[in-house]
Amino acid sequence: MRGRGILHKIVNLVIFIILEIAMLHLVTNSADLQRIWVARGSHAFMGTVWGGTESVRNYFTLSAENKKLAKENDQLQQELALAKQRLRQARIDTTQTDRHPGYTLTPAEVVKISRNKQHNYLILNRGYEDGIQEKSGIVTSHGVVGIIDAVSEHHAFALSLQNHDISISARIGEEGGSGILVWDGIHSNGALLKEIPLQYHYQPGDTVYTSGHSLLFPPDIPLGVAGDSRVINGATNEITITLFQDFSSVRYVTVVHNDSFDEIEGFKE
Amino acid sequence: MKRGFWIAYILLLMAQLLLSNYFHVTPYIFLTILPVMVLCIPIRVGTVGAMFIACLSGLVIDFLSEGVIGLNALALIPVAYARNGIIGLIFGPELFARKEDFSIGRCGFGKVAVALFLSLLIFLVVYIWADGAGTRPLWFNGLRLAASLGASFVVSLLTLGVLAPDPRK
């Protein structure tokens, strides 16, 4: 009975709409003023509704757009690295005092990442087929993400910076002392910069960079900002660092490999 | 079924034709008795039937008077669509249960006046809005609505005696 009532109401509504549309059609065909009015209303509707759906469609194509931007970003980083290398070479040519190795940059996408453990890891969609090697660094425009630990044909397993097993060489300020940067084990963006000699002065808020001493990462990549510090055993400072890298949103990364890694490692043997 | 209702309806339709063709006193007043005619269509006709009758009535006026074809029908169909809702809201569901039509004598002047007012309001809002086609300022449309509502309400009350006579008389 109730279902019939609802059906009646629907039928009434449908007939009402049909009749109104028919009458509106008659009205617009009968007078120019009304025709322009309806056309204007129709255009306003189309602009609002279809313009809105276009925004929705754009939202769903963001993934492709992100990939395109990541690729473009990697290309620009390659060019930047090349330009830096040329600049260094030019300096070497004039001073003949130092020589820095170049780095190979490979864009990659994070296919899996763990964040809530004490030994976090990530897996990238690039393997040795793509030129990825073990002992390569992983960076983004916001800092260091991790270090490649194992490589298969098409994937690479890496230790995240949020892992107690990894530490990287970092420097505080442009000319400050270098120490070891490790995850603080508590915060997703928290780290500790250890073993900074007491003679090096710094201010809270100073930027922390990669030192370039580890062979894994190029120097001068901004990592985070310095916070409070404490003296350890009366010999060194331990500084709390707030990292720039947000591990909850990391997706597109760049794998950096020191071209002279094997050569330099060979000296150790 | 009210006796002689359809004859009265057709006669009032002709009266509306005369009003539409000859009553051009001021642009602020649009005189109409079409909403009251649709409101008084016997309940047993139903909403769909009332909508078709309203559509036909509006088209007759549109075709035979100097106006935009479809305009009266466009404004009158919503009255027919809302008719059962208005009657149920103001007079209660008993009328539908007994299949009885309303009248001033049975339902009281106040309730009938409110139903009439609502019907006229629906009709005139759509009519004035579509007739102006976005070219008239709001104050003009508002003034036209108020003046037309007042004038049409008085004329419609006069026709109620014909369309919804008191069955006790």
Explain the overall architecture.
The complex is a heterodimer of chains A (269) and B (169). Chain A has 269 residues and is of the alpha+beta class. Chain A has 2 domains: 2-60, no CATH class; 104-268, Thrombin, subunit H. Chain A is built from 4 helices and 12 strands. In chain A, the strands form 2 sheets. Chain A has a 6-stranded antiparallel barrel with strand order 1-2-5-4-3-12. In chain A, β4 and β5 (156-163) form a beta hairpin. The radius of gyration of chain A is 30 Å and the shape is elongated. Chain B contains 8 helices and no strands. Chain B starts with a helix and ends in a 6-residue tail after the last helix. Chain B has a single domain, classed as Orthogonal Bundle (Arp2/3 complex 21 kDa subunit ARPC3), CATH 1.10.1760. The longest helix of chain B is centred in the last third of the chain and has 26 residues, at 138-163. Chain B has helices at residues 5-22, 34-39, 46-64, 71-91, 94-98, 104-107, 109-132, 138-163. Chain B is globular and about 45 Å long. The model of chain B has no long low-confidence stretch (mean pLDDT 84). In chain B, 73% of the residues lie in helices and 0% in strands. The interface between A and B is medium-sized, with 21 and 21 residues.
> In whole angstroms, how far apart are the ends of chain A?
91 Å
CATH class of chain B: Mainly Alpha
> What is the molecular shape of chain A?
elongated
Name of the CATH architecture of the largest domain in chain A? Beta Barrel
Helix content of chain B: over 70%
Straight-line distance between termini of chain B: 16 Å
Number of helices of chain A: 4
- How many beta-strand runs of chain B? 0
Mean pLDDT of chain A: 81
